[in-house]
Write a structure and sequence with these properties.
This protein is mainly α. It contains 20 helices and no strands. It is globular. Bound molecules: tryptophan.
């Protein structure tokens, strides 16, 4: 008999691990800067709408596929598509997911590695020295990015930590790490939100975030909000599917999905409140919004009392958030090798982790470290220059939305109404009209919205 599949020890274990996957650089690094670029208010509102109407239903769908099949991303489609329209072709969705996980992890870990460098600098006092002269910090950051040895070193350290945790498996590795890291993360974040409350820029930050002005929102901003809702919730490539496959039958999928989406959203909004309060407290000019996290915040931190402490705390927070996300990305690839290739977990984790580490070195040296790899540009837009830019563009603009669309179509149109209803009510009890609402969203509303993103990308709308 096959070995029994690993499970989370309880409801909390699953929710924390999945929330850990969702909450990451997407919330703390990407969301604040795209919100800044899109002028806040209206963008935030559209983002919240996308989470509710597209994110939540697809989150539910992925968990249903995983728990129903008890398999990895490829195995889930292999088992669930048997005898249905499209048959084994649906496995392609799983393969796309595993490949996307491989690609995203390879470059995500490079950015995550920067946080290690910043923690070390905050603790050693080096960051304080640089932060008192904004130009020095900018210069430092530029040199750091283009130093191939340092980029590879910190990327490798981050991959090492990720591999080390996934190696120990679902219970002793992933769940234990999430239970340790997530409460720390939530506590630090709550402290920083309270801290920002007392800064003079708090009121302006709230107005910026919550007073919508639709004339300031462009069409591409709408699409960007929708696209980001996939990335931030870890949807579209089978990460939630894989974590769902370890979920106990007696726990409720709808309740878990709502909790995860709510936590992710609260953290993203909190990150904005913290950063904008601090930025608006000073007449600080944000020169390049994508580097707010690494070149603007330290400057402002050190203008406040306790800057060394706050900044060390802050980068520890970012590192933890990124780590629980990289774990989930590696687990998608590892569980595929374990289930489908029959590898033992240790071999799967070490081999796949090493391959991703190696592939990631290309991204690591593509931010100035290596001229050729930094300049190649197949897509031809400024933001898609270099290996890193190309991979991020392909993953977030193509692989995740296409994967998400196919997952929605499969769950809504290929699985039967009774099958999905049974899985959703298992551990929850009768859902009544809520089931009909979800089914409408997953069959019609979500595919239509995601289809609109994909069509607009094809027509050339910039939604990066
Ligand atoms: N959601 C994470 C973030 O916001 C990143 C992430 C982890 C992810 N796993 C994923 C994104 C799977 C897409 C798919 O940082």
């Amino acid at each position: 008999m096959a070995k029994e599949r690993a499970q989370w020890t309880g409801r909390l274990g699953f929710v924390l691990a999945a929330a850990g996957s969702a909450i990451g650089l997407g919330n703390l690094w990407k969301f604040p800067y795209i919100t800044y670029e899109n002028n806040g208010g209206a963008f935030v509102l559209v983002y919240l709408g996308a989470i509710a109407l597209v994110g939540v239903p697809i989150m539910v769908a992925e968990i249903v596929l995983g728990r129903r099949s008890q398999k990895n991303a490829v195995g889930a489609f292999r088992v669930l598509a048997q005898g249905k329209a499209g048959g084994q072709l649906w496995r392609g969705v799983g393969f796309l997911g595993v490949m996307t996980g491989f690609v995203i992890l390879s470059y995500y870990s490079v950015i995550a590695g920067w946080t290690i460098r910043y923690i070390l600098m905050a603790v050693s006092g080096e960051l304080g020295g640089l932060a008192h002269h904004p130009a020095d910090l900018q210069a430092f950051f530029g040199e750091f990015l283009s130093n191939p040895y340092q980029q590879i070193l910190f990327h490798s350290l981050f991959m090492g930590a990720t591999i080390g945790i996934v190696y120990f498996g679902v219970g002793r590795g992933i769940e234990r790490a999430a239970k340790l890291l997530m409460p720390v993360l939530l506590t630090i974040l709550a402290m920083l939100v309270i801290y920002s409350f007392w800064t003079p820029g708090f009121g302006e930050a709230m107005r910026f975030l919550f007073r919508p002005n639709f004339s300031e929102l462009s069409a591409s901003g709408v699409l960007e909000a929708l696209g980001h809702s996939f990335f931030t919730l870890s949807l579209g490539m089978g990460a939630m599917l894989t974590y769902g496959s370890y979920m106990r039958k007696r726990d409720s999928i709808p309740r878990a999905a709502l909790t995860i989406c709510a936590l992710d959203t609260i953290i993203a909004i909190s990150a904005c409140i913290i950063m904008f309060s601090i930025i608006f407290s000073f007449d600080f000019e944000v020169t390049k919004s994508s580097t707010i996290l690494f070149t603007t915040l330290p400057v402002v931190f050190f203008q406040l009392p306790g800057g060394a402490f706050v900044s060390a705390l802050f980068y520890v927070l970012v590192a933890f958030a990124a780590l629980t996300s990289t774990i989930s990305l590696l687990e998608v690839v590892s569980s595929y090798a374990i289930d489908e290739l029959g590898w033992p977990r240790r071999r799967a984790t070490l081999t796949m982790g090493a391959a991703i580490l190696a592939f990631g070195t290309l991204s690591a040296v593509s931010m100035g470290g290596n001229a050729a790899l930094s300049n190649i540009n197949f897509i031809g837009r400024p933001s898609t220059a270099g290996v890193f830019g190309t991979l991020d563009y392909l993953a977030s603009n193509w692989f995740l939305p296409v994967g998400g669309l196919l997952i929605a179509l499969f769950t809504g149109w290929i699985l039967s109404r009774d099958e999905t209803r049974e899985e959703l009510e298992e551990g929850n009890g009768p859902l009544g009209w809520k089931f009909s609402l979800w089914r409408f969203l997953i069959r019609v509303a979500a595919p239509a919205a995601v289809g609109a993103i994909i069509v607009s990308v094809i027509l050339g709308a910039e939604y990066q």
